[in-house]
Amino acid sequence: MSHGKQFTLYTTAYGPNGWKVEFVLQELGLTYEPLYLKLKEGEHKDPSHTKYNPNGRIPTIIDHHNNDFVIWESNAILFYLAEKYDTKRKISVDSFEEKMIEQQWLFFQASGQGAYFGQCGWFKIVGPPPRIPAAIERYQKEILRVFGVLDGVLAKQEWLVGGKCTIADISFVMWNEVAVTKFLNDYPGFDFERDFPALCRREFSNHGYIVALISSNEQNLQNLANELKSAGREAAYYAVSKYDYDEMHNAFEYFKRVYPNDEIRAALWNVTEAVRKPFLDLKKEDMQKMVDADVVAGFGFAQEAIKAFKQLEPNKYGKRGFLAFTSATGSRRGAPNCAISSTGKFALRALSQTVAKEFKTDDIHVSHVIVDALILTERWKVLYGDEWYAEKTKDEKHRTHPASIAKAYIYLAQQDTSAWTWELDLRPSHENWTW
Ligand SMILES: N[C@@H](CCC(=O)N[C@@H](CS)C(=O)NCC(=O)O)C(=O)O
């Protein structure tokens, strides 16, 4: 061939199967000439292609450095490229057993993912009308089932095989992407992040953030950091001995040492000394503890974050940094038995507003976020037991998922300078508005 590249790749711009071959060729630094066939015009059925690929589908490759060796079926191509050219095993595995597992996933991708997801696309989008609801639903359900298989496996391990990203993982990427954006976009109640967290990963680390966690509960910190790490994300934590001004400073200093070359761009505060008691039963110590944790430590946290933001240039959203104070309705209205928490949240709201106004012209975005919801975390189960939790959470619309809250924070962090939220109030749709 006159193009002088090692491979000729018959592919298309509009279908997922060819892209995985391009990903792998690029990862391995191999040169190729892509020929993007127009499927609508039947170019893939033309003898100029079918003489190489009797199946008349893309992708197909010709290896000009191996006697014009021809191979088709996307996963057969991936395996060929890995076995022949990934000698350092950058994106493939070495031992016999691991290779068999790699093959297992490649077979599953072709037969269980590609074939079924493709049928969903045919009945829902590409094929001729009428759109048959029973057919669309069947394949949508199959996509959800396959997502469940992958999510279950990836909840326990970082990658499908060999402890690293391999051709097995790469083979699934494009169809997953198409399914989320085009096939399940109108499926009732579908929420990728919420329903398949291991496939999707936690929101902030998923958006490229390193996650630096601070808490007084070391076990929780360890679990969360491990979960993020096993999902291939970067995370570190600092366990404070108590919530106070000095410990906030220590935590920030620690993270700066651990990540000397990274920037602090977003800081989220969520601390509450949640004491609920009749007013006359409260002790001086209860109030003092709240002031130390909610107010003084919150103030220290905000100072550290603002100092770090001020050293940076504005990012692509036009801000040096984003600081959020997580709060509650008690920050706006007091209620019986809430003298401690409400006083703390009122103070936090005042702090948030003053900091927001003082640093807006430094391009630092500060938001006060009220979250009024039963948040679906294991913590409630531990506190009140399985039965209570099951009863309280049975109605989907009365509860809030942490991933949905995280999504709102991401949205705030990415707002451009023309519309900054200064206060947000989040509730599940059927919240009973007792407050
Ligand atoms: N199992 C095959 C599927 C190939 C396939 O269906 N390719 C699509 C484009 S993504 C195609 O060529 N469709 C054209 C047709 O069905 O006529 C592979 O993974 O390579």
Give short descriptive properties of this protein.
binds glutathione, Rossmann fold, 4-stranded parallel β-sheet, alpha/beta, 435 residues, 3 domains, Glutaredoxin, 16 helices, 4-stranded mixed β-sheet, Glutathione S-transferase Yfyf (Class Pi), Chain A, domain 2
Name the CATH superfamily assignment of the largest domain: NAD(P)-binding Rossmann-like Domain
How much is the radius of gyration in Å? Answer: 27 Å
The residue-averaged pLDDT reads 91
The strand line-up of the biggest sheet is 2-1-3-4
Describe the largest sheet: 4 strands, mixed
Classified by CATH, the class of the largest domain is Alpha Beta
According to DSSP, the number of beta strands is 12
Looking at the structure, the CATH topology of the largest domain is Rossmann fold
Short summary:
The protein has 435 residues and is an alpha/beta fold.
